Amino acid sequence: MKGIDKVRPGNLGIFLMLVFVLLTGATPVVHAADTRPIRVVVDGTELGGVSPQLVNRRVMVPYRVVAERLGARVSWNAGERSVTVTDGDTVIRLTAGQAVAASNGRQIRLDTAPVLLDGRLFVPLRFLGTGLGWRVNWEAATRTVQLSSVPALTVRVAIPDGVTALSMVRLLRERPPMGRNVTVSYEIVRSPELLAAKVVSGEADIAIVPTNEAAIFYNRNIPYRLAAVNIWGTLYLISSENISNWQDLRGKELYTFGRGRTPDIVLRYLLAQNGLNPDRDVTLRYLGSVTELAQAVLAGRVKTAVLAEPAVTQVLTRRQDFSVVLDFQQEWARATGLGVSYPQASLLISNAVINGYPEFVDRFLHEVAQSAVWVNNNPQTAGVWAEGLLTGMTAGVVEKAVPRSNIRFVGAKEARGAIEAFLTVLRDFSPEAIGGRLPGEAFYFQR
């Protein structure tokens, strides 16, 4: 622009504002009430030549000088006005004027969009630093941003086989990077007892467990917190008989599994809520596992049964005379008046990881949430991947089972009401089912 070298210092701020508006079409709010310079310190060494700016109350820095000082490679696309920052397996892309960035292909919303100031692209320092695996802290008293190396971390994730593992299939297949010096190992655990043992012994840093077991662990002072709910119920009543509502079950023989456990408690609760006494109005027959029950249905020995996905789809695919007659998730939402299903499986994170590695926790939970969305949007591919990773999962069955698997990531804060309602029902049936009492505030991890 002609005359740029003649802009007086007093008008420089106005000029930069005008340049920003012309280039991005947006209006930044640059806060300059405190005239002290902002310092950027990396592992105790101050970076020179950075000249950070406060934009919309966020510290913004020129991408190249900071990214390269952090050991990353950078490239600038003038046509798109975008920058790509690469550090090992991590690839971050930011674009001037856009409040959505990409990290390894995942879309992440920013508090403040990158801005062009004085011919340089300024990007949010916190997003850039944490995205490259650094710990970022703002010290308001000294107007200093501290970037610190995160100590090496190895995280062991234990996941039960079946639908719960299906919710994580994208992570299991792609193994997305979780930050500098972070190694994550995933184990699919076939036995519920072995999974519980890994949590109790601390052998698993992260685990997905039945929500009532999470409460039991808390009440036993095992140092984990519930971070999210992944699965919102997978139970269905299927039958070859003429059944359309709860009253049609009166006098019937009903097969189920998991005596005294969640499937049994949910069934008994719903029977009672619909005016049926589980011990008088129906005859309950218990088999040892959902797999054994599915085999009995396929063999023609059972006419009406409570099954869970993916066994429901496996049976319906081979027995055309069977159909789903009651959706326990919908029935629970109606019976409780909450409008939501019961939180069947929840994600636990050890207190040591939560307290010591908050950046990793945020990144991991984001990836888990994205995996759940991806599975629901890509059931065919999820089926192909699951067939190679999970026991008894065939691609065709998974594809059909996904809509009934109720895979949905909900953080502990948002899910708390549904969790407490579920645990209350279990406690009233049998206090031992949740470890004796409802968990306290510390049970729930809130970001």
What is the strand and helix layout of this fold?
Layout lengths: L11 H13 L14 E4 L2 E2 L6 E3 L2 E5 H7 L3 E5 L4 E6 L2 E6 L4 E4 L2 E4 L5 E3 L2 E5 H7 L2 E6 L4 E6 L3 E8 L2 H5 L1 H6 L7 E8 L2 H10 L4 E5 H9 L4 E8 L3 E5 L13 E5 L4 H12 L9 E5 L2 H9 L5 E5 L2 H8 L4 E5 H9 L8 E6 H6 L1 H20 L1 H11 L5 H11 L1 E5 H18 L18
Parallel strand pairs: 1-13, 14-15, 14-16, 19-20
Antiparallel strand pairs: 1-2, 3-4, 4-11, 5-6, 6-7, 7-8, 8-9, 10-11, 12-13, 16-23, 17-23, 17-24, 18-21, 18-22
Task: Write a brief caption for the model.
The chain is of the alpha+beta class and 447 residues long. The protein has 16 helices and 24 strands. The longest helix has 20 residues, at 358-377.
